[in-house]
Amino acid sequence: MKQVRNTHAKTEILNLINDSDIALTHSDIQKKLGDLCNRVTIYRVLERLENEGAIHKIVNIDGVVNFAKCSGKCTHEQHFHNHVHFNCKECHSVTCIENAIPEISLPEHFIAQEYNFIISGICPKCANA
């Protein structure tokens, strides 16, 4: 098994994602980190964290990639993210909705292994504004 390297940048990026209630874009992370590391290092760290099963990737309705923390079940071999993601049309936030799991009914001989659902609408914060 490959050794897990923990750098200062990796630790800070993982803390940002773990402490956030919404999924973060690369740009969000870069702004919050300031001059800690460059954009290429952020991309490499995000890829490493995803491969380690610490974060997962969500592509929002605009095609922007967001990153959110994984539940404790994920490993570097397999991610378990068969849940809904909510994309707010107002503030563009992406939120994992863990307790809403859609039922899938596929035609005979099709086997679902993973899926990604994006629901778009207005989040509670924007609806109350």
Characterise the protein shown here.
This is Fur family ferric uptake transcriptional regulator. Pfam families: FUR. With 129 residues, the protein is α+β, with helices and mostly antiparallel strands. It has four helices and six strands, in the order αβααβββββα. The chain has helices spanning 8-19, 26-33, 39-51, 124-127; strands at residues 24-25, 55-59, 65-69, 84-88, 94-97, 117-121. Strands 1-3-2 form a three-stranded antiparallel sheet. Strands 5-4-6 form a three-stranded mixed sheet, with no helix packed on it. Helix 1 (8-19) packs across helix 3. It is globular and about 50 Å long.
Instruction: Please identify the structural class as seen in this structure.
Output: alpha+beta
How many DSSP helices? 4
Strand order, largest beta sheet: 1-3-2
Shape: globular
Fraction of residues in helix:
25-40%
The main β sheet shows up as: 3 strands, antiparallel
Order of helices and strands: HEHHEEEEEH
Q: Strand percentage, roughly?
A: 15-25%
**Low-pLDDT segments:** none
**Rg from Cα:** 16 Å
According to DSSP, the number of beta strands is 6
Give the overall pLDDT as a whole number. Answer: 85
| N→C terminal distance | 49 Å
Organism: Chryseobacterium sediminis
Protein name: Fur family ferric uptake transcriptional regulator
InterPro entries: FUR, WH-like_DNA-bd_sf, WH_DNA-bd_sf
Pfam family, one: FUR
